[in-house]
Amino acid sequence: MNPARKRTVRLTVALSAAVVLASALIYTSFSAASPALTPSQLTRQAQPGRSYQVTGTVAKGSVYRGGSGGAILYFSVEDRAGGTTIPLAYTGTVPDPFREGREVIVTVEKQGSSYIGERNSLITKCPSKYKTAPAGENQNA
Amino acid sequence: MAGLGFACLLLGLAICAYGIGASVYGVRSGRVEFSESGRRSVYALAGILTVAFAVLELAFLRNDFAFNTVASTSSRTTPGFYRAAAVWSSQEGSLLLWAWLLSMWSSLALFLTRRRMRDIASYATAILLGFGGFFVALMVFYANPFATTRPAPAEGQGLDPLLRFPTMMIHPPMLYSGYTLCTIPLAFGMGALLARRVDADWIKAIRRFAFAAWLFLGVGILLGARWSYSELGWGGYWGWDAVENASLMPWLTGTAFLHSLMIQEKRGMLKVWNVSLVLATGTLAIMGTFLVRSGVLNSIHAFGGATLGVPFVCLIGVLIAGSIYLVVSRRDMLRSEHRLDSLISRESAFLANNVVLVGLCFVIFWGTYFPLISEALTGQEASVGPPWFDRYTVPLALVLVLLSGIGPVIAWRRATLANARRSFLAPLATALLTLVVLLTAGVASKPLAIAMFCCAAFVFGSIGQEFFRGVRARRAMAGESVPRAFTGLVRRNRRRYGGYVVHLGIAVLFIGVAASSSFQHASELGLSPGQSTRVGAYTVRYVRPTATITPRYDAAHTGSTLSLGAVIDVSKGGRHVATLNPSEGYYASQEASQGTVGSLIGGQPVSHVSMNAGITRDVWSAIEPDIEAPALQRIVRAGNSALSPEEALVAIGYLAREYLKHPPQAQFHFIVSPLVMWIWIGGLIVFGGGLIAIWPTPSVVRRRVAARSRARAVRGLARA
Amino acid sequence: MSALIAILILLLLGLIVLVVGAPLRAARRGDLEPQPQETLAGHPVQATAAELEVEHDDMEAAREAKYREIRDAELDFRTGKLSREDYEAIDAQLRAEALEILNRLEPVEPPE
């Protein structure tokens, strides 16, 4: 095989390998992903055994600790616009900004009729102090 | 004063417009004076943005709450140190920081190339001013840092306590420096394509810029990792958070570029690849900037504000489209001059390294942007978690570390097979020895960590062998003592041996990452005073509660009104390991509805982590005191009804006393992470090695070497 | 206060125009280096002084890079990565390439 042919073969093999690996990557990402749902969507679609990402706000008066040594944090997540509320039990690190009324994202799995939060999956959005001022705001010298 | 700042922005916009026109006209017409004028526009932009930045910084330091950004992110009680840093805690201020840093670094780059690469530099000037103009325009039209409200409020909302850490001063400027420095190679890359010149002179210049970007970006990323490590809600240095990933991607492609550039320098190969890498790095940096402030992906960093998303998407679209067009239309001049001589060569290893790095970048890219991708493809937004990332990044990281040990051992162009085989013996032996030691020590439960340790051992063996052989060769040639031979060797071959040190640092860093990920113990404990509990091999005991009240205007502290915590004692096998003092700080809020006392502690609470960092392990603890305990809440309610705002601080004193006398059970987060220290040490080694590699040889030495090399070359002619 | 700021702004504007316009003024006075001949975009009529300078810089950079390659090859040999035959072959090749660059450099001097 002359050098040029060898190079073409090498290139083809390398590219094919890359395509195969990329396809494997892409395929597994779809099956490993957790869809992001609001509580109302979750109550409609949730299947036991699959994990979902719930986004919403922490319902007022729903936060309390329980379990042995207070290791489990119980709270409810409701739709941003109000409406469906789902209670869940969460273990793991609780971010500093967490409190009632804050927006959270937590990965949950439906077990029976209750939702269990995945360990250390709770993210609380920083309170929106970084909102951009709408254009046209007072800009006098 | 705000008017001055805003006027500076407008002037900046005008400068950018003029500079772009002058540079492009100058290079296309050949009239040097216009290119000169264009370059000076960049200096002028740097100057005017410095004035604007100074105006904003002064407003913060002087507590001028007429400025909206000052009112929303600072207050009289915010300590001076954090008031200065608060400038870049808001969307508007951070845009100004970005634009200012861009103008400063661009000025430096263009100053350094003022006598060379006139045509490329002119195009680069236009592109850099384009970026500058984009960011200034964003500020002028969308997010004005100099917007004011009159009459000015008497007090601001204060800097978010979560940001009151010293790293807040350094991490954003470092990271933004890294991002803005990434745009300089992009500008010079596009400039080279536009000027149709991709050659040795360009390589020399762009390497310096790419290295500076790599250095600053890397330091910024490490600082961010260290910061998040010390913060509750993380406890880990890397969470595959979208924004962390976004900063890592350009760093990976930048590393790939620094390697493959050497191949282009030596063999005139990979021109298309290199140019694409440099354009991708710059584009990824802009995408990273975009991600932080668009709210498009969920992240702890969310700056929020969807208004900025559209302009950024347009910019990124232009960058991608422009890059593809330039590369495709110039593909003739980007043809390789040579081909790979042999698969067993350092060039080959570098190619493999590039493939792995770009592969890593692709995995991270896919996983990070997956919510957007899945929404576009399936209509349903979904995201992938750390397990998915780990599945692909860990094997790639293993290969990467292994390659960093293989590369140094192989010669350039084509290695002698027999010699190469012999050279691998020592590193392999080191790796196998490590494997045996680890297995006998009984850590067989974590195969991936073991694999990483062995790969790192391979690297140590290979680098150690290189230094040993190098010193030996030098001593044979010059008869020097070992220390002198060592320094002489490194000094005369900075790029090579500096690079070896970088590889050493990477291996150390990955040892730390592997150990702290695989062998970490984390748990949540509920403890009352005197109680103790076991966590793995450690015993944690709640010794006593702590409570501190900080007077309202104490500038030395982070400014919390009340701080409740505990002293805990950590021991292992009866031996005392560490005493930790985690606490939770409660800050004042602006909400009157919480009552006079309630509003003193009703703001964003921040956890102050207590950590004992050691060479072999870090012991980390955070506390969540039960502020909702009935006894404490009773005091708050009583104070709310009975006390006026001026007297409310008295109630805080009672709160503290009650907490000390009858401390309620508290929640503790407790983590023991082995070898975390080595991540930071590894990082330091990497950057030290990088500095060695890039440090220019003094011109005296360079001339001497050049003369000798020339004599050698001429001798070859005579012999032929 | 606003009057002061307005004056300051005008001063800044003046400074900018001064700095940015300096090369243009210098060119009009004829202070800058001899102008390269006007070339129609994309159709260089002949090698201009600017282009020669660019090529000279480029050759110098290529020469430095080639010298470094020669030294790297020697270090590769002395640290045992290459056999003597392989090293001599590579070294001869590199020296020939270096000579090529040196030859191209000699006649290409920047105009003084």
Structural class of chain C: mainly alpha
By DSSP (H or I, 4+ residues per run), the number of helices of chain C equals 3
Q: Work out the largest interface and the residue count of each chain.
A: B-C, 71 and 60 residues
User: Quick check: average pLDDT of chain B?
Assistant: 86
- Largest β-sheet summary of chain C: none
Low-confidence stretches of chain B: 553-557
Which structural category do the helix and sheet elements of chain B fall into? alpha+beta
Q: Which stretches of chain C are low in confidence, meaning pLDDT under 50 for 5 or more residues running? A: 35-46, 108-112
Amount of helix of chain C: over 70%
Anisotropy-based shape of chain B: globular
- The structural domain count of chain B equals 3
The helix content of chain B, as a percent range, equals 55-70%
The termini of chain B sit apart by 75 Å
- Give the end-to-end Cα distance of chain C, rounded to a whole number of Å: 54 Å
Number of helices of chain B: 23
Order of helices and strands of chain C: HHH
**Oligomer status:** heterotrimer
Rg of chain C from C-alpha positions? Answer: 25 Å
State which percent range the strand residues of chain B make up: 5-15%
Count of strand segments of chain B = 11
Describe this structure in words.
The complex is a heterotrimer of chains A (141), B (720) and C (112). Chain A is an alpha+beta fold. Chain A has helices spanning 3-32, 39-45; strands spanning 34-37, 51-58, 64-66, 72-78, 85-90, 103-111, 114-117, 123-124. Chain A is elongated and about 75 Å long. Residues 129-141 of chain A have low confidence and may be disordered. Chain B has 720 residues and is of the alpha+beta class. Chain B has 23 helices and eleven strands. In chain B, the strands form two sheets. In chain B, strands 3, 4, 5, 6, 7 and 8 form a six-stranded antiparallel beta sheet that branches. In chain B, strands 2-11-10-9 form a four-stranded antiparallel beta sheet, with helices on one face. Chain C has 112 residues and is mainly alpha-helical. Chain C has a domain at 50-112. Chain C is 71% helix and 0% strand. Chain C has helices spanning 2-29, 49-78, 84-105. The N and C termini of chain C lie far apart (54 Å). Chains in contact: A-B, B-C. Chains B and C meet through helix 1, helix 2, helix 8, helix 14 and helix 16 of B and helix 1, helix 2 and helix 3 of C.
